[in-house]
Write a structure and sequence with these properties.
Elements lengths: L1 H13 L52 H8 L37 E10 L8 E10 L4 E5 L6 H9 L6 E9 L11 E4 L11 H12 L4 H14 L21 H13 L5 E4 L8 H16 L3 E6 L4 H4 L4 E6 L2 E7 H10 L10 H9 L3 H8 L16 H13 L2 H14 L14 H18 L1 H21 L10 H18 L4 H16 L5 H31 L5 H29 L2 H17 L12 H11 L1 H14 L3 E4 L3 E4 H5 L11 H26 L2 H18 L1
Parallel strand pairs: 3-7, 3-8, 5-6, 6-7
Antiparallel strand pairs: 1-2, 1-4, 8-9, 10-11
Helix pairs in contact: 1-12, 2-13, 4-5, 5-6, 6-7, 14-18, 15-16, 15-18, 16-22, 17-19, 18-19, 19-20, 19-22, 19-24, 22-24
């Protein structure tokens, strides 16, 4: 205790500009306290903007969701620490009604409370497996509860635990109550927004939200349009509703602030009772951050319960919070009203200086990374002596704050509030229903068609590259004729066409990786599934792959001068189309396995080179070494079946004259250059094998997505990456 007291005295004496809210600075120069009865209004600051509308705060109805326990809890007096501060200052500002556009419908919120919540994850912490330790807290409808702390303090883990989205490796102990009940939150009753959400850049904001509503909600189309417009109005996106999210060609898309609001609006189409947001201010500047929080405050005033994490905020943003849960290394250092947290730090001996943001002061006191800065700053001197602002030992500060909070009236009031919220059960949250599987497949197919038609870089550019490649091969092998001497050259032309066209398909890897990321984002919120995603992606890709196959096949077929027969031409087109389908499935499989552009590209190039070598062109298949090159490489290479089918289509039934008397069949003519079957139905068997391989690769992808087997490979890659960075 002597060490703690000496550190507190040192910090208090060294901070010449520091001032206690209760003794040194008049309230007119510090943070203004809510007036009695204004529990759900934001804390105001001297330089906060003055809002115009005085009627924006949320009124709790007696029969609202949550039962009487919520209403009784909402009417409870403010935090005990707040009652000690002079509250005779100006009234708190109200969030403007016009902040979110025109009026939208109210949302029935729900209360959430957690008691003795502990989360353990093996290998997450260096010295302990406990990521969150005995956390207590609650959140009311119509309020914003923020979980704040430095990096790796357990903020996101606590948020995931409350939302029931912990990974399988994590174990949760304690209790989470929703409207006083321990029941699990059903589908549609809550929304969860990840820190980084994948958006479809080739869709407009309205299109993106509309397709999201079609995937999530049952019912009629016109009802979903109304929900989409409500979400657009609630997140202040009316000016961007018809703008492409990611831009097009040389047009700029939405900025990070608008994109973040679009990701939140996607969850609002379900009209959730509780909305969890992981870092809503992630990668936002000060203006975008303030606009985001004002918009969220407006959303809370509609009745929604907001719980989100935050790392740091400005003074204006801090004034909009209702309650704060302060974490450090998984320990709860404070939970309660935001202004009471300032009083808590002052009581512990760490008052907030006048010109410093509260969140900066909090993180400065509890972030152990500052110890390295302290050690570095002790070697230097400024004009006035030591760097007085960094003399505080964070480990001592954390222990002091934790001990002060556990013995304070604030901790006792939190336990009392949790008891009131859980002593009797309120209204049970009900599932809002899901869209049917057939509806989801149709929506994903149509959305894929629309996206592919606008993705000029990955689809139309691929078509251009295919045409350029085909023209190059066609001019290189043009004018071969139909003599016996042209057989070997014609085999080379077919081999080069199939092999190089398949290799060129790797240009579509970025698009496939983006589709997988979008699926992961939608599947995490139960908006999509592995089967509907794969079926929709497969059906949506068919028109574009067929367009590539028919355009390339026609150019190659007539420039090289293959047999002039319509049925043979159609088989050539279908065979190459199946080849592209198999190649697309293989790329999807490798992309799903690695989830990384570099490793996916490297793996596919290696596989294509191996399949080219074993396709039977460089050395006839009968002469290939049996152990590896014949079994299994030659039989799992789709190049082999495609090339064999095309050559059987060209040469079976053909007759070549040898001199004036003798003639040989096409099978005998090609036998020395490539191994094919003399059976005329063999080419259709090769077609069936290609079709089976196209579905087989997608079946493997389904298993990976459905059972999460690909996460092991991705986790190993991430672990290796972290080890390399740490070794550096």
């Amino acid at each position: 205790m002597e060490e703690i007291q000496s550190q507190s005295d040192l910090y208090r004496s060294s901070s010449s500009c520091a001032s206690s809210p209760t003794s040194r600075v008049p309230s007119s120069h510090f943070f203004y306290v809510r007036k009695p009865g204004s529990l759900r209004q934001p804390i105001s600051f001297e330089d906060s903007p003055e809002w115009d509308d005085p009627d924006a705060r949320m009124e709790y109805e007696a029969g609202g969701v949550g039962g009487d326990s919520i209403n009784d809890a909402a009417a409870t007096p403010i935090s005990p620490s707040l009652s000690k501060i002079n509250s005779g200052s100006m009234a708190s500002p109200h969030v403007p009604e016009g902040a979110g556009g025109s009026a939208v419908r109210k949302i029935a919120g729900a209360s959430i409370a957690w008691r003795d919540l502990t989360v353990t994850m093996t290998g997450k912490r260096k010295y302990s497996d406990k990521v969150v330790k005995s956390s207590n807290g609650y959140a009311f409808p119509g309020t914003m509860t923020v979980i704040m702390g430095p990096a790796k303090s357990g903020k996101s883990t606590l948020l995931r635990a409350l939302a029931g989205r912990l990974p399988p490796s994590a174990k949760m102990y304690g209790e989470v109550f929703v409207n006083g009940s321990k029941s699990h939150m059903p589908y549609g009753s809550y929304g969860y927004v990840e820190r980084e959400t994948e958006l479809i850049g080739s869709l407009t904001v309205r299109e993106f939200l509309y397709y999201s509503a079609l995937l999530q909600l049952p019912g009629f189309l016109f009802q979903k349009r109304g929900v989409v417009e409500d979400a657009i109005q609630a997140m202040s996106l009316s000016d961007y509703a018809n703008k492409l999210i990611g831009g097009h060609c040389y047009m700029k898309g939405l900025r990070s602030g608008e994109r973040r609001r679009v990701s939140i609006a996607r969850e609002l189409v379900m009209r959730p009772h509780i909305l969890f947001i992981d870092e809503p201010l992630y990668h936002l500047d000060s203006v975008s951050a303030l606009l985001m929080m004002v918009t969220l405050k407006k959303l809370a005033s509609m009745g929604c319960t907001l719980v989100f994490t935050i790392y740091q905020s400005s003074t204006e943003v801090f004034g909009l919070f209702d309650r704060i849960c302060l974490l450090s290394n998984g320990n709860t250092l404070f939970f309660g009203e935001t202004l009471a947290c300032l009083q808590h730090f002052s009581n512990a001996g760490f008052p907030c200086p006048i010109m410093q943001s509260p969140s900066d002061h909090f993180l400065r006191a509890i972030n152990t990374d500052f110890d390295r800065i302290i050690a570095m700053c002790k070697k230097w001197q400024d004009d006035n002596g030591d760097f007085s602002a960094v003399n505080m030992d964070t480990a001592v500060a954390i222990r002091t704050l934790e001990a002060t909070y556990k013995s304070s009236e604030d901790a006792a009031s939190v336990e009392t509030m949790i008891f009131k919220l859980t002593e009797r059960e309120g209204t049970q949250l009900k599932s809002k229903g899901k869209a049917g599987a057939a509806t989801r497949v149709a929506v994903l197919t149509w959305r894929s068609l629309l996206v592919m038609s606008r993705e000029w870089k990955y689809y139309w550019l691929r078509l251009i590259l295919y045409m350029i490649l085909t023209l190059c091969i066609g001019t290189l092998y043009s004018g071969l004729g139909h003599s016996l001497s042209s057989v070997a050259t014609r085999v080379s032309a077919v081999f080069v066409f199939v092999s190089f066209a398949s290799l060129l398909g790797i240009a579509g890897i970025p698009s496939l990786l983006k589709e997988i990321k979008i699926y992961g984002s939608e599947a995490s919120n139960q908006h999509s599934g592995a089967f509907v995603f794969l079926l929709g992606q497969f059906l949506g890709s068919i028109p574009f792959l067929f367009l590539m196959s028919i355009s390339s096949s026609l150019v190659f077929y007539f420039m090289v001068g293959l047999r002039d027969d319509f049925s043979l031409l159609m088989y050539f087109v279908l065979n190459f189309f199946m080849c592209l389908l198999v190649n697309e499935g293989l790329m999807l499989f490798i992309a799903c396995l690695w989830r990384d552009v570099y490793w996916t590209t490297l793996t596919l190039i290696s596989l294509h080179v191996i399949m080219m070598l074993s396709a039977g062109h460089f050395r006839i298949r009968n002469a290939l070494p049996k152990p590896v090159w014949t079994y299994p490489l030659a039989y799992i290479s789709f190049h082999t079946y495609s090339i064999e089918g095309l050559l059987e289509n060209e040469y079976l039934g053909e007759v070549f004259a040898v001199g004036e008397v003798r003639s040989i069949s096409g099978y005998e003519a090609i036998r020395g250059d490539y191994q094919i079957s003399p059976d005329t139905s063999s080419k259709w068997r090769n077609m069936l094998v290609l079709l089976a391989m196209a579905f087989g690769y997608r079946l493997i992808v389904y298993v990976l997505l459905r059972f999460g087997l690909n996460k092991n490979v991705s986790a190993r890659l991430l672990l290796c990456h972290r080890k390399n960075n740490s070794s550096r």
